[in-house]
Design goal:
This protein is mainly beta and 457 residues long. It has a single domain, classed as Porin (Beta Barrel). It is built from one helix and 25 strands. Strand 23 and strand 24 form a beta hairpin. The longest helix is centred in the first third of the chain and has 24 residues. It is globular, with a radius of gyration of 30 Å. It starts with a helix and ends with a strand. 35% of the residues are buried.
């Protein structure tokens, strides 16, 4: 019996040895390596390495639901409106020997109703509500390439925030009157250490949108003529922007200037003119961090002046709704019908904004703007009781309370008050288009409110 067991064990051992020797002669097959997604910490939270590359990617976005009510300017306009907006951000960065190479895209889809999409037709003259839809009428659903730029070291190329802007509607739901535009540009930024930097930028103002909430198109240069027709013959070069900025622990400050060339010409019925005009603007702003009050508290102060380029004050060219006052044609320049000389419109503005955290999850934001324009022409589309320029003066103030129960979620309400004065009492030509048929109105007050639920991710 013992002999049988020994024979069996020996046979098994021999077979195993032969099989192992044969297997050693066969080529080995290893499992393909798994490409795991790695976290990239070089550029902040949310970035990860694109598999197979040394580039870092961050995908983020926003969903916003908003509900607004406002005073009716016209019998043909809803007194409320709704908005749904979706935003997608794609941010790709790569470290190179020349500095960081960054590509950024922001795309938005928006659906508007009611006063968000208020019209400018003959049946709702002056229907736009300040802070809600101050630009041209927007359709029910709109798409917008808000940002699309490449940064390579000190160079920024593509569609980006204007380097003229400082306080760019950073707070509040409604936009106050301030420079806040995204334009096609080519810029160079030099850094000097200790938070100091300087930028020179070539910017195409005809490509831009104005206001994060306004959605209006920048239409400068816009020309106005009394008693005749006129055209803008384009520009020989884009606007030149220069800014000096400092960012330190106490806050930020910036001084910026813009200069551009405009070419105007007249058609019939007025003295002929064909020549260049220069437009310019200057702006200074400061942001002061106030951690002694609460973490995240800050104060913004800003002042600006523009000559021949009202878009740098946040006023978009074209037709502007004045409520019961009708509509006002805003232009960057006008032609004297007698001499044919070109007169630039001028204006200035003041902006203040404050953010305070009552608790880590509850905050209040207050912003205000005051601006005055000197237009130098009469708008013939209105019935004027005095033959003089309107020269509007506007005051806007907005205040809100926002609750952030979890990270990335904001639930808040806001109230916006607007007051507008014009130099001379005016009325519309056709009283049937407005709620009030009273002539001789010189000022307008409006009140609107919003509820916003927003998720950023």
């Amino acid at each position: 019996m013992k002999l049988v067991k020994s024979l069996l064990l020996g046979s098994a051992a021999g077979i195993a040895a032969v099989a192992g020797a044969q297997a050693a002669d066969l080529p080995s097959r290893k499992a393909a390596p798994v490409e795991y997604v790695r976290v990239c910490t070089a550029y902040g939270a949310g970035f990860f390495y694109i598999p197979g590359t040394d580039s870092c990617l961050r995908i983020s976005g926003r969903v916003r639901a908003e509900y607004a009510v406002g005073e009716r300017y016209s019998d043909f306009q809803d007194a409320y409106g709704t908005r749904a907006r979706g935003r997608l951000n794609v941010d790709v960065r790569t470290q190179t020997a020349y500095g960081t190479l960054r590509t950024f895209i922001r795309y938005e889809l928006t659906n508007n109703t009611g006063i968000y999409a208020s019209g400018t037709g003959p049946f709702n003259v002056g229907s736009n509500v300040p802070g809600l839809s101050r630009g041209p009428a927007s359709s029910a659903t709109t798409s917008l390439l808000d940002l699309a730029f490449v940064q390579f070291g000190p160079i920024t190329a593509g569609r980006a925030q204007s380097f003229f802007d400082f306080y760019a509607s950073d707070l509040n739901f409604a936009s106050i009157r301030t420079a806040d535009s995204r334009v096609n540009l080519l810029a160079y930024t030099a850094t000097f250490g200790s938070g100091f930097s300087a930028t020179v930028s070539l910017e195409d103002r005809t490509s831009g949108t104005v206001g994060r909430e306004l959605g209006g198109i920048i239409q400068d240069p816009v020309l106005f003529v009394n008693g005749g027709a006129a055209v803008t013959q384009g520009q020989d070069y884009p606007d030149l922007i220069a800014s000096l900025r400092v960012d330190q622990g106490w806050g930020s400050a910036q001084l910026s200037g813009a200069v551009g060339q405009r070419n105007y010409a007249t058609l019939a019925n007025v003295a002929a003119v064909n020549g260049d005009e220069f437009a310019w603007a200057i702006q200074g702003g400061v942001k002061i961090n106030l951690p002694s009050l609460a973490a995240g508290d800050a104060l913004w102060l800003q002042a600006a002046y523009a000559d021949g380029a009202l878009g740098y004050l946040g006023w978009s060219g074209g037709s502007f709704g004045l409520g019961r006052l009708g509509r006002l044609s805003l232009a960057d320049a006008s032609i004297n019908p007698v001499t044919g000389s070109i007169d630039n419109s001028t204006g200035w503005s003041l902006v203040a904004a404050f953010r305070h955290f009552w608790t880590p999850t509850i905050r209040t934001e207050i912003s205000a703007s005051y601006s005055e324009l000197k237009l130098g022409y009469n708008d013939n589309s209105q019935l004027f009781l005095a033959s003089r320029s309107l020269d509007p003066k506007e005051f806007l103030v907005a205040a809100n309370v926002i609750w952030s129960p979890v990270s990335g979620l904001d639930i808040g309400v806001e109230v916006l008050y607007s007051h507008l004065d014009v130099r001379a009492p005016v009325g519309v030509v056709s009283n049937a288009n407005v709620r009030s048929g009273v002539l001789g109105i010189k000022s307008e007050d409006t009140l609107s409110g919003r509820l916003r639920i927003q998720r950023d991710f």
